[in-house]
Structures are given as C-alpha cells and as structure tokens.
Records
---
Amino acid sequence: MTPPTVAPSAGARSRSAAQALDRRDRAWWQDLLARAVVGLGGISAVLFIAAIIVFIASQGFEFAWHRLSWSELLTGARWEPTAKPPSYGAWPLIAGTAWITAVAMAVAVPLSFAAAIYVGEFATGRRREWLKIVIETLAAIPSVVWGVVGLQVMNPLIQRLFDTPVGLNVLNAGIILGLMAAPIMTTLAEDALKAVPDAHREAAEALGATRWQTIRKVVLPHARPGLSAAVLLGIGRAFGETIAVLMASGHRLLPPSSVFDSAATITATIAAELGEAAVDSDHYQALFVLGLVLFCITFTINLLADWLVRGGRGRA
Amino acid sequence: MRTPLAVLAVLLPWGAACVRGTARYTEVRNLGSDTMLEVAGAWAEAYDKVTDHIVVSVSGGGSGTGIAALIVGKIDLANSSRKLKKEELARAEKRGQHPVEHKVGYDGIAIFVHRDNPLPSISMAQLKALFGDGGEVTRWSQLGVDLGDPKLDPIVLVSRQNNSGTYEYFREAVLGGSTGRFKLECMNLNGSKDVVDFCGKAKSAIGYSGLAYANEGVRVVPVTTGAERGPVAPNNASIIDGSYPIARPLFMYTNGAPQGATKEYLDWILSDAGQRVLMEHGYPPLRPL
C-alpha cells in the first residue's frame, strides 16, 4: 500500500488525522473503480446520443446542404427517390405517420388508462400483482410478432368486419401500434396514479364521494401531468416503431384520407429502402435526412413529456 | 424467411470444408440479390457434390449490396437481378475494377390476381394504363371484369418498394423506360412473396412478382403484346423464346474475366447440370434443356 503522499504539518493536526484515515487501501481502489464504471455508464447515454446525431447528420449532410429543398421534403407530394428525375417529397410519409399514430393513441389511451385505473385503484392483492406481470409481459412481445399478427390475423379480419377490399391500412397499423404502446403507457399511468397521496382519496371519501367520483374528480386531475407524459411517451413509441408498421400499413405513398386507406410511415420507408440504396447516393443521404426529421420529432416529444413530469412534481 | 436459408447456404459448404480441412480448398464468395438467394444456395449445395476442391459461400442482402461488395473486392461473384447501373460502373472503374456480366438464367415476372378474378388476359398497354402514373384504368369494369360487388370495382394495385430489382425491371419493361413513374395509389410491399400473398387475400388486387412465387391463392394472367399475337402465359418455353414480354435475365458479375475456382463454378452454372438446378427452383433456364 502506498503511504499518504502529503506529510502532516505542525499547524494542521485535524487535517492530518483525517488524512491518516484516508488510506489508499483495497476499498479505496474498489471505490475509485466502481465510481469510474458507474460514471462511464451514466454519461454513456449522452455520448451515444451525441454520436448518433453526428453520424446521422454527417451521412446526409452533403445532400441536405447542396441539393435538397427542405420545403419540398416537408411538403412535396411525391416520394420517388429512384425515379428519373427523382423527387424527395416526404409529405405522404409524414401524414401517414401522423394518421397511424393518431389511431394508435385512440386505441392505446382508453385501454391503458382503464387498465391503469383498474390495476392502481380497484385491483388488490394477488390479482393486482398478476395483472402487473401480464401487462409487463405484453410489453416484451417483439415487434415483428405484432407485424405478423397485423399481416396474417388483422388483415383478413378488417377485410371481413368492415367489408373493405384492403386490410393492410391505417386502421390495421394503428391498432397494432396502439396495442404495442399500451403496456408501457399503462405502467407509466399507474405510476402517476400511485403518486397521488392517499390522504386526498381519504378526504374525498370522507366527504361522501363514491370510488368513481374520487377517481374522476380527485385522482385523475391530480395525476394529469404524469398521465400526459404517459401519452406523450406512447406517441414517441408509436412514431418510432418500424417493422410492425411496415408489415401492417400496406405502404402506399399517398397521404391517407380515411383509416381504411393504406399508408406509409417515415420509419418503414427508411427500413424498406436503406438496404438497397447505394452508399452515399442521393437516395441514401435523403433517407438519413428523413431519419434526422424523425429524430427531431421524437426528441421534441420526449422533452415535452419530461417537462410535463417535472412540472407536475414541482407543483405537488 | 430469407435469413435461415442464407445461413444454411453459408454453413453447409463451410461445414463440409471443416470436415475435409480447408487447406486444399478454394473458396468462392458469392453474395447479392435476394431474388436469387434461394437458387444461389441451391447451386452452391449441388456444386458441393460435384467438386472436390471448391467451396462456395452464399449470402443475400440485395443486388446493390452484392455489387458494392464486388467493387471493393470483398467477394468473387455478385448475384444481381438487374444490370449494373452507370454510377456503379463508374465507381468500379475509379477503383480499377472491371465488372464483367454473365447471364445465368431468367426470371419471369408474372401478373397475379385473386384466384376468383375472371380476367382472361391483359395487354402491355393495359398494364401501363393500370400501373403507370396518369394511366386511365382504375376500375375493373374498364377491363370488362365484373367482380360482383361495386365495392370491389376500384382496382387495388400491388407493387414493390422503389429500389427492388423487380420494381425497376417492371418500370423499365412496362411503364416505358427509366423515366416511367408508378401511380402513387400503388401499395409498395416489401417482398416478392408478400405481393403474391396479398393478391391471394384481396379480391380486387392485381400485382406483379416473380413467377416462382405463384401459389394456389392466385391466378397468373397471360399477357398480350400486340393485336396479332394471342395472350402468352409465362412458362419456361415462352420466356426462353422471348414471346412472354416481362421476363428479365438474372446475372452474376465477376471482377474482370473469371479465373480459377470462380471460372470453374460459373462454367458449371452455365452447363446443363447447373441450368437444371435453376429450372427445378421455378426459374426458366438460358436454353431449352
């Protein structure tokens, strides 16, 4: 073991006593190592995000800077990167993504809130624990499995139920995405409900409120920031999901005008086209620019969700 | 579905090589088109029984991926379901490489409809009016077909994603060259098999895909080229003699003229034995066998 490097001086008796305790023994080195490892893990998320932004931006930079018209990208009606001349209008993709996400939320919000209220407010004991495990298992189903469900189960089902010629459409992809986003939203919503102090519930019940009145008038308003954050994170999940949407949406490059139209999303387009696009070609770079657009959207949504959660805590 | 096959195709010769000891064996690295992956794997497998000193490893990834790997010298033989693009050739020349094209077989692009659809045949002009941007055919009644329900009258067009070789070939052959554009109403599915499956489930759909993917849910529609010729169904004979209009050649590319093991393998593929393997997998061979 190395002795303390600083010699104790006459005027600093207490300090030298402290230093005598501060030996570089095994525990000290372990502490240093543990702190270094944990610290690296902590900042790694920041490093990864920075590296990903730099990578995506650098891959698409040359094209985005010199040849891409941003107004065409965001509002153009034709996504035909392999046609001659090519056109890079991503509006149908943006509209398709928005439509499918909207349907997904229409499915996921009632479902997950109802589940969260039941699990958090009504269910007790073993039933509650079981439900929580099942919901978490639902979140672990791989997205390609959901995609197969969309392709093989929902497609004929939608054709039959709604008497439409095509079952791969906004409705199909939206329902699939809604079911995928629901478990994580349920967990987050339940956390938000749990954060409401029991004193509030007891006060309401003491005043003669029924369970449902308590939930509707006291618990839900109090949990609103957390619930909004759950919805926003669910939207982020739906926006970023790829393979299930690619399989279930039909991938038609027109902005949909009803839920029975097929549509394409930004993520599905990137997944379908990147593999065959020649590296560094305009098409390849345009797909990276799309990735950047997607990243900006989900980043904004996550930030908003974070801000809401913090705002809620600040007021509580 | 593709990945396990690719892994198998790679592992089989590799496993065989391990058993026999790799030292005396030359490896031919073969990569590219997903359309050709199944038959490329079958070739490698069949060739393993013929040769005693060559091991062929096969993987997919797409025609573009294979050509890119050939240009940087990572592989010996690139599978491609389309001709080399000008930009790719330029990139290769810049690196001092000279890709050489070898036609190894054909792929018939068939027109698929639901098995209950009575459409007797379709002309090239009708196909263009159906799939091409600005084309006026949008309803089955315009083609003289009654599907029994007015909801089924609007035609559902089934196409491929915009960088698939099949998509490019169809644009070239049917929509009038590389400047042709598809209707935006097309659904762009992500695999040859998906197109056929979809047509088998949607009564009002029409789509194009590799002939080898036909199944019992769909019907293959014969195609007419002109007024004087009758409708032609895609099959080995009509594709080899060129009377069926929508068939594309399948290629393998080498860097410069093929040499050594690569040449031996390629010669075998072009021989009757190799061509028979192709035919067994549903692709028309280069010549009648």
Note: Chain B touches chain A through 36 residues (CB under 8 Å).
---
Amino acid sequence: MQLSTKHLLGIKDLSPKDISLILSTAQQFKEVLQRPVKKVPSLRDVTIVNLFYENSTRTRISFELAEKRLGADTINFAASASSVKKGETLLDTVNNILSMKVDMVVMRHSASGAPHFLAKHLPNTGIVNAGDGINEHPTQALLDAFSITEKTGGLEGKKILLIGDIMHSRVALSNIYLLNKMGAEVMLSGPPTLIPPYIKEAMGVQVEYDLKKALKWCDVANVLRIQLERQNQVLFSSLREYNLSYGVTKKLLQEVDKDIVIMHPGPINRGVEIDSDVADGNQSIILQQVENGVAVRMAALYLLAGTAN
Amino acid sequence: MKTILDKQQLQLTILRLAHQLLENNDDLSQVVFLGIQPRGVQVSQRIATHIQLLSKNTEVQYGVLDITFYRDDVRDELHVAGKTDINFSIEGKRVVLIDDVLYTGRTIRAALDALQDFGRPSKVELAVLVDRRFNRELPIQPDFCGIAIDTVASQKVKLEWDKEEVVLY
C-alpha cells in the first residue's frame, strides 16, 4: 500500500485511493498527538527543508511541527533572508541545499507551478507543495477534508459551500478537486468578479451568487480569505461593501437557521469575509482545522517518504 | 500445509494462556494487556475476555497498540497504520504485550519503543500464541507461549480465524 505519486504537487494528481490513505493515516497520527510523548521516530533518518518564498504562519509552523513529530531533521529557509535577494535562481538554490544531503523539499512559492518545475528537474527528491501562487494548496484541502469528515462523518454526498475569492484562491481549487474526487457536492458563492465565469463547466460545480440561498443549501461553509495581496485590479468596490454583501455574519446565519459547519483556512480578515462572533462561535471549527493540519501533514510526509524509494 | 493447532486445541491454548497470565499477576488492577495491531488483536481480545470471566470483581484493562510508526523498515516497505487505543495510564503498571506469532522479534522491538511514549511500565512481559524458534533476529523471547514450533524462513505461519486454526504453509 503506497501513494501513486512521489511528490505532493496538487490534489489534481492524487487518486481517491491516495486521498483516503492520507486521511486514514492522519487519523492515526492524530492519536499520536494525544499521547504523553507526541512524537514517533518514523522519519528519523530524513532531512526536510522548508522553502518559503512567501509569508506564512500556520502552514510553516504546521509543517515544521509535523516534521519534528515524525523525528525528521528540519531546515527552515525564508527567501527574504537568503541569497535569493542576490539573484540566485530557484533551481540553483534548491540544488545547493540538496547537495548538503537533504531528502525532501516543502515549498511555498508565489508563482503557480514552481513546485512542478522543481519536481521535473529533481525527480528523485520528494517535493511537497505548501501553496503555489493561485494554483493549489493540497495539504490545506486534505486537512479541510479531514476536519469535515471528523465533524460530519464523511465526505460523500456532503454539500460543501466555498465562499469568496475563488479566483485567487489555491485553497478553493484544491478543495474543489478533492471534494469532486471524494463524491461531495460543491457550490461556489461570492461576487461574480471573483468567480471565474467558466468554472461551472470546467470543474463541475454549482455557482450561486446569492449567499443566503447558498448557505441554506449547504452542510459546510468554507469561508475563504479575501487575498488583498493578489488584488491588483479593483474587483469589488470596498471591503465594507464586500462585508455587507458576502460577509458571513451572525445575523445572516440566524436568518438561515441551519446547523452549518463554518470553516476558514486562515488568516482571517475579521469583519471582512467573516465576523468575529461567527469565527469564534460554536459552529466554527477553524481552530480544529489548524490542529488537524499537523496530523494531516505528518501523514503526507510519512507516506511520501515511504514512497520515495 | 500442516495444521499446527486445530479449533479445539486453539481454544484450549488461549484458555491456558489466560490462566497463566492470571496466575502470574495477582493484582489485576496493576496489570494492562495490550494486543499488537493488526494480528495480535483478535487473540489478545479472546485472552482478555477469558481473564475477565475468570476474575469477575476487577475490570481487566485492555488496549491495542499499533507499532507501524516505530518500525525499522519504513523506507523499505510502507505499512498501513492501524488504530492505537490505550485509554488508561501504563505508568508504573505491569504491561503484558500479546501477539499471535513471534518470529524475527522486530515487531516486539518496535512495540517496546512505542510503549515508552505512553509512560514507564514497572515491567513488560510478552505472551504469544505461536513462537517460531530459531528465526529470531533480535534477542527477544516470550514469557508466555501457546506453542513453540521449529520452522524455516521460507515457511509461513497463519492464524485463520474463520476456521479457528493455526496453519503452517
């Protein structure tokens, strides 16, 4: 039993069997994280570099914790404090790191396809995508799926709503791929300017521009972050206007009057896409998502290390 | 193919192991029984059930331990992890590990490592249904043993629960 791939570049390349294997392994790692000693020696002989070309709190800490709890050695690399500033290319940087006997690379990059480029040039090194541009963020989709399964008992037939900045969201794309593969129903909601017009046909999802209707339909609502750093053209007039028409507020949830599970991949823009009393309310599983992230990343790294040889 | 234990012999052997374990541990509140995933679970469940029947007044502490993440061959072969379920403390307790077949001893080595992450037992003992002598790769021996057999590495010992038999291929 092993994964069908040596790299985790995106959910697109995974089979439903791969996804189930990662999720069931994550279940066992979650139990490990409840033990008095929250650590196993599985990757004792593996060294992993975390290459972060883009800022991150949750993902970087989560990967680093996952690596340490698997017994791996870790190196952290932030592009802002490195020779990248002197003009070193991505491939040169990675080859230099690998020549110091590093086994796996976890990379976040602002360019879509950067990890695929690395995987093409370094076929023998396990590459894990920790988010590439507006393409994919596979471990986030996996931890979202794990959290939904934990909360609602499964993915098949579940109605999942993704709200907000679908166009710039790698979390959305990975989630759509995963939920489609695992037999869940997906609906997108948000301003028409932030939902690619062709996505309905291309990805086989539903689109509903009326947020209240969409919320009435769903079992789980995954509220996406408005990516202020990727908005170089004006796609909605103001943050306040966004909050008024597409913000998930307590009042709106009361009107919908349904026990919807609320998720958010973080970091939250409080008062923009979600209000504080919803984010911190009892329908929210936002912090459980973060907790599950470590177990899911442990599972992915463990399975990839076992598949590498 | 050769039957090592038929249905009746298997039942008697499990019953005998249960009696032996009870005989050696007079205070059951200080003992925990742990079946090793995946194949030690069924035999350990039966032993634990018998012990519970024999000692009605004390509750038998029973759990299962998965050792996948502690294996020394992670890079050679990927194993699917099973569930670990130990909902009590093992600190200062006597731990009895239970598995179906003792062969190279590597599973038990991994189990001893795994145990340390749950606490420090006062003593660890090993009970197995079948001991394949002369095939050990580590200095590990059982304290309680259902049946000891001599095999060569090319042979396979299997517990077939549907027929309730132990068979040598």
Note: Chain B has one domain: 2-20+29-168.
